[in-house]
Amino acid sequence: MSAPGTRVPFGARLAAAMDEHGPLCVGIDPHGPLLRDWGLPDDAAGVRELGLRVVDALGGRVAALKPQVAFFERHGSRGIAALEEVLAAARAAGTLTVVDAKRGDIGSTMSAYADAFLSDGSTLAGDAVTVSPYLGFGSLSPALELAEATGRGLFVLCLTSNPEGAAVQHAVGSDGRSIAASVAAQAARHNAGASPLGSVGLVVGATIGDAARATGTELEAVNGPLLAPGVGAQGAGQRELADVFGGARGNVLASSSRGVLAAGPDGSALLAAARRSADEVRSALRAGR
Ligand SMILES: O=C(O)c1cc(=O)[nH]c(=O)n1[C@@H]1O[C@H](COP(=O)(O)O)[C@@H](O)[C@H]1O
């Protein structure tokens, strides 16, 4: 399902995976304290082991896995090699991956990031990558084009889960719209006509309260997946998911890292935690799909 080169668009593959497993993405965030709790060293071997154990426990059983690149990068080239192995294992298990790299740069550099994370044959490519639109949405063109050509997807930061994001994302641009509303409108343009779901998603934190309404961000019009971090460790639960996303909740892919990984390292405990979390988000979002 997630083999590189497949041309079934990411949005369609993700919609099928969400229907099958529930709308939950489990983040693979091997940070120092978690490694310690799992009895693993805080080095490249430790992040490799944690990542592979998560894939072993959850591969084929959740809609998506989201390795956070920084936790691998902080261990240098051997950390990157560990990320490559984790991505390969997820691919082999048939589980979609969102590579959480949050890249964004001017066109020629963005092209190189797109090659790294979205091209067939790249060892760092997953099924989708998180990107930042704050050098201008148009600067993402190389990634938008390569994702479309390879059946992969993007998650564009829109209304992030951290409180500091509001200073940029709620600001009003020269067209009178908030930055968040404008990012959402441009994603919607790329997803127009796609069915069941476009491949240009947004990141909208489950912790943002009424920020979508307050900024005029039309989530229902996006027609793409809405990656919703903030569930679990950052405090968002069922009520927040239902409130934040309103009529767009059928397109939400809730994301939890620490909230699930804290149940490890035992594989069956991890699976039980992921299933519990998936059931909770499914029931919070049920009315929308
Ligand atoms: O793009 C993301 O995944 C992301 C966006 C955002 O607005 N907030 C956010 O927390 N994230 C990521 O989601 C994960 C949240 O981890 P937990 O709080 O442990 O579930 C981290 O990897 C963050 O980098």
Question: Main traits of this protein?
Answer:
289 residues; alpha/beta; TIM Barrel; eight-stranded parallel β-barrel; globular; disordered N terminus; binds orotidine-5'-monophosphate; OMPdecase_type-2; EC 4.1.1.23; orotidine-5'-phosphate decarboxylase activity
Write out the strand line-up for the largest beta sheet, numbering strands in chain order.
Answer: 1-2-3-4-5-6-7-8
CATH superfamily: Aldolase class I
Structural class: alpha/beta
The molecules bound to the chains, other than polymers, are:
orotidine-5'-monophosphate
Fraction of residues in β-strands: 5-15%
Number of strands: 8
Topology order in helix (H) and strand (E) letters: HEHHEHHEHEHEHHEHEHEHH
Which descriptor suits the 3D outline? globular
CATH architectural name: Alpha-Beta Barrel
* Poorly predicted runs: 1-5
| SS element count, helices | 13
InterPro entries: Aldolase_TIM, OMPdecase_AS, OMPdecase_type-2, OMPdeCOase_dom, RibuloseP-bd_barrel
Keywords: Decarboxylase, Lyase, Pyrimidine biosynthesis
Organism: Isoptericola halotolerans
Pathway: Pyrimidine metabolism; UMP biosynthesis via de novo pathway; UMP from orotate: step 2/2
